Amino acid sequence: MKHTPLSAVHEKMGARMVEFAGFAMPVQYTGIIEEHTAVRTKAGLFDLFHMGEFWLTGPDALKNVQKVVTQDAEALSDRQIAYTPMCRPDGSIVDDLLVYRWNAEKFLLVVNASNMKKDFDWIKSQLSGTYEFEDHSDRTGLIAIQGPNAQEILQKLTRQNLKAIKYYWFTTGKVNGVEMIISRTGYTGEDGFELYFPAEKSEMMWQALLEAGKDHGLVPVGLGARDTLRLEARLMLYGNDISDQTTPIEANLDWTVKFAKGPFNGSEVLKKQKEAGTTKTLVGFEMGKGPAPRHGYAIFSQGKNVGEVTSGTMSPTLQKNIGLGYVPPTLKAIDSTFEVEIRGKMYPAKVIPTPFYTRKKDK
Question: In the chain, how many domains are there?
Fold first, then answer.
């Protein structure tokens, strides 16, 4: 099992450690609900060293990015970021990732920890022309600070004007004396930043951020609350909500699929799905009191097994059971009902709009 540069720090802070994507990672410190609530109301700090960072550079970098992702990287401005699926020719999703555009000849691709080797090998197999493709994951530290107080805390450590960074844009500059990428992104549904810097600076940066945030309610947050936060915001988890067995159209990620840019991996299949419809679609639902839905639970309609829950939890913010699941298109309308089988019993569920939670924007 691999360790992040912060593994020893997490253990000293009393975190319960688990294996995740081959890494020893903190699942919780004081408790999932406490950590979740801190991010929604104050601020939380996340160790994301396990994520993958690939650099694609050279004269044909843009052409290659355009082929492997569904988003339009040519339409991005320099220093803008896009969330995007990456598909095979059959439309199935290899992974979902972030594309950071420096310019037409320089891109950073941030991929999921569990898919790192698969993604690198897949992308490499698709590249052509003049380019360089490098994996910098082991040398890149990544810490996220998320929540309503995130900007105020981070601003203490940098001269960069954080307010000027728009959502899904990035800049470079020094934080606590360390040169890094500062991006206004996250996986929680809250405002916040993700910081990329040399891995050997991880412990120093972690402690500096905790110190800067000690009077602003900043707490370290584990994987448990990271999952409940992202589900409330209807952010996809690869391996659950999207996978090798799903397409962006089935997952209601149509907004990430830019057909106008020209052919790309999966474009023909996805275009047919967009026009003709799909046999399954991802919906958000709520349930009444009782056990929470979980990944893999069966969905029934009129006595027939028609789908499967992909993610589910008791929402700490909304105080109700929520979930995502694939159902036939006939059940996708808001207020449609079905049942979820939990330990041999059927529990009613109702389709509701997503995201389940949306933060209140700054006035």
Answer: 2
